[in-house]
Design a protein that fits this description.
By secondary structure, this protein is α+β, with helices and mostly antiparallel strands. The chain has 2 domains: about 1-55; about 60-190, no CATH class. The chain has 9 helices and 8 strands. It has helices at about 1-10, 20-25, 30-35, 55-65, 70-80, 135-145, 150-165, 165-175, 180-190; strands spanning about 15, 40-45, 45-50, 70, 90-95, 105-110, 120-125, 130-135. α6 (about 135-145) runs antiparallel to α7, α6 (about 135-145) packs across α8 and α8 (about 165-175) runs antiparallel to α9 (about 180-190).
Length: about 190
């Protein structure tokens, strides 16, 4: 069983969950034994990490709460559109989903039909995948939220226009979110590009 657990961990970038163990007919007692022998580390309820792998908070949160979508400053960070360090993780949840209170999360609930606009699996700095808004949605959110100061907005917009610009996708999102004119003015009229 130990070899099977290690195989699953290596396939999952070091991680195994109780669900993985159950799906592979591995009794959880074997996970407990590997924790006692310091071969596995419990990183959250039902989530374990094989020794020698790096703990990835983004991925752990996503495994714990699969309905979350990283947004705002966290999405900017994951999309390499900010140079700020994160202190908390901003997430959005569909209004009908619940997660236990977690001091690491800044949770926003949304009933909006646009909650899935720009949602994609994105790679964390440690090579795992989690749900996050894409670059174009991040840029649009700069116009929709007052949470960002001028310097953060300028940095994100400059990074986007210099390295990732996709006008068709950006303008499509802006139209759906009702901010087309503001986005168009910035990228065309003011001639940022």
């Amino acid at each position: 069983m130990k070899n099977e657990i290690i195989k699953i961990c290596k396939k999952n970038n070091g991680y195994i969950t109780n669900k993985d163990a159950k799906n592979n007919n591995i009794p959880t007692i074997y996970l407990s034994r590997m924790i006692k022998s310091n071969e596995l580390k419990r990183v959250a309820k039902g989530i374990y990490l094989l020794n020698g792998f790096i703990e990835d908070e983004f991925y752990i949160l996503y495994l714990l709460y699969p309905n979350i979508i990283f947004d705002k400053d966290t999405a900017l960070y994951l999309n390499k559109l900010t140079n700020n360090m994160l202190h908390n993780y901003s997430v959005v949840l569909p209004y009908n989903c619940n997660v236990p209170i977690n001091s690491m999360l800044k949770i926003k609930r949304s009933r909006k039909t646009n909650i899935n606009l720009g949602k994609e699996l994105i790679e964390t700095p440690y090579g795992n995948k989690c749900m996050c808004y894409d670059k174009e949605r991040c840029i649009c959110d700069l116009f929709l939220n007052d949470d960002f100061d001028y310097e953060d907005k300028a940095y994100a917009i400059n990074e986007y226009k210099n390295n990732y610009l996709n006008k068709d996708k950006l303008y499509s999102y802006a139209k759906q979110l009702g901010i087309f004119q503001e986005v168009f003015n910035l990228f065309e009229v003011i001639a940022w590009i």
